[in-house]
Amino acid sequence: xxxxxxxxxxxxxxxxxxxxxxxxxxxxxxxxxxxxxxxxxxxxxxxxxxxxxxxxxxxxxxxxxxxxxxxxxxxxxxxxxxxxxxxxxxxxxxxxxxxxxxxxxxxxxxxxxxxxxxxxxxxxxxxxxxxxxxxxxxxxxxxxxxxxxxxxxxxxxxxxxxxxxxxxxxxxxxxxxxxxxxxxxxxxxxxxxxxxxxxxxxxxxxxxxxxxxxxxxxxxxxxxxxxxxxxxxxxxxxxxxxxxxxxxxxxxxxxxxxxxxxxxxxxxxxxx
Length: 272
Ligand SMILES: NC(=O)c1ccc[n+]([C@@H]2O[C@H](COP(=O)([O-])OP(=O)(O)OC[C@H]3O[C@@H](n4cnc5c(N)ncnc54)[C@H](OP(=O)(O)O)[C@@H]3O)[C@@H](O)[C@H]2O)c1
Fold this sequence. Notes:
The protein contains twelve helices and eight strands. The protein is α/β, with parallel strands linked by helices. It folds into two domains: about 5-160, NAD(P)-binding Rossmann-like Domain (Rossmann fold), CATH 3.40.50.720; about 175-270, ProC C-terminal domain-like fold.
């Protein structure tokens, strides 16, 4: 990775956290470039990480071995049309983190030979514990796949899927997933308060329990189902709570929620 120039189009939140992760992993700041219409946004990253600011998107693309497209989906087509000439000249690996823009759009607007990795990161990437699904088009070499893993892996876990439709499943699972856990946290805090705890105590206990459960599940060599069974004593309190969840259709509700998100992700992709 240290031999590659990595340029970012868009110097917003995601670019900032990816650059932060890359610098932390030892990526040389001289190898990092940013472009953004806002001089203030560019300067923020120059001041924070010492990266190179580019006057415009072309200047960034012409430096790049890896070109990370970190703009909002609404402006992506305009950005791609404008970048066509520079990308054809330099032929960098394109990494798009924009939700809902299919691989075909990049081939159409940048050229059929362009190597493109489409990613679906999630919001915890902003604090270095993201979960990202990635899909490569057939032009991406093995070395470029490794580069993409290193760039997205700088802010968490980055895994490949092998069919583009699976990006919708990734969107439904980890893309939207943080909100599901936030909802569970909200509900647990409210229930804790209803049982007599003050708000701050209920909140701290809930958040620490979520962190503890995720940490245990990550560090364990058994699946979450086994961990759940291990903390459920027959006739105990956990058993009562879990029975209430099961009787209320918890699993089918989660299944229906993710199915709805997957469907909506497909619908939104058709609109872009
Ligand atoms: N944030 C997340 O947690 C998250 C999670 C998953 C996926 N994503 C995806 O990541 C992408 C970036 O998200 P973000 O949260 O980092 O957005 P953001 O903070 O709004 O950053 C986008 C940046 O791109 C700039 N920009 C606009 N037009 C441009 C152009 N023509 N050329 C170069 N830069 C341009 C914007 O400037 P202005 O502000 O002046 O318009 C802004 O600074 C989005 O496509 C989003 O779907 C984000």
